[in-house]
Amino acid sequence: MPPPSALSIATSAVQRLVKEERSYHTELEQQNKRLEKLLADPEADEYQLRQEVCQDFTILSLKRRAIEETKAVFPQLDNRIKDAIGKIELTLEDAKASGDESNAAEITKAEEVVSDAKSVLSSDDN
Asked: Helix axis angle, 6-40 relative to 59-98, nearest 10°?
């Protein structure tokens, strides 16, 4: 089996980063839902929530901290995705310039991955 091409490697890198970004968005949504559920619980008043201490932190502060830590990941991850897109676009240009028809499937896949990555980045801007 021949080693993977540079285009294939770049494509896989962008796919991994996009998957990671989506995973963090899912985690953020879950954390927000847990916090909303905790705050909406009629049985748990603010005093009670503050009394439930876990290693010197209240449950509320731990949940809010987890949300903020997750949000802090996005700018760095977006930069990594942008860098990976730049690399894959250069590799795509080289692959297209070579005119090798055997790369057609890889080129198509790479273009789809770049499009997907750009849509993830643009959805973050909104």
From this structure: 160
For 77-116, what is the HEC assignment? HHHHHHHHHHHHHHHHHHHHHHCCHHHHHHHHHHHHHHHH
Is the CA virtual torsion 98, 99, 102, 103 positive or negative? positive
**Residue 118 to residues 22, 39, 61, 122, Cα–Cα distance (Å):** 13, 35, 34, 6
Short-list 7, 3, 1, CA closest to 106: 7
Predicted structure pTM score: 0.78
pLDDT by residue (tens digit) across 20-68?
A: 999 999 999 998 988 887 777 766 655 555 555 454 466 777 788 889 9
Instruction: Write down the residue that tokens 């809010």 correspond to.
Output: 64
63 and 35 Cβ atoms separated by less than 8 Å? yes
Cα–Cα separations (whole angstroms), residue 112 to 63, 95, 108: 36, 15, 6
Q: Please list, in sequence order, all residues whose beta carbon lies within 8 angstroms of the beta carbon of residue 125, skipping any fewer than 6 positions away.
A: none
Tell me how far CA of residue 57 lies from CA of 39, 45, 52, 73, in angstroms: 16, 17, 8, 22
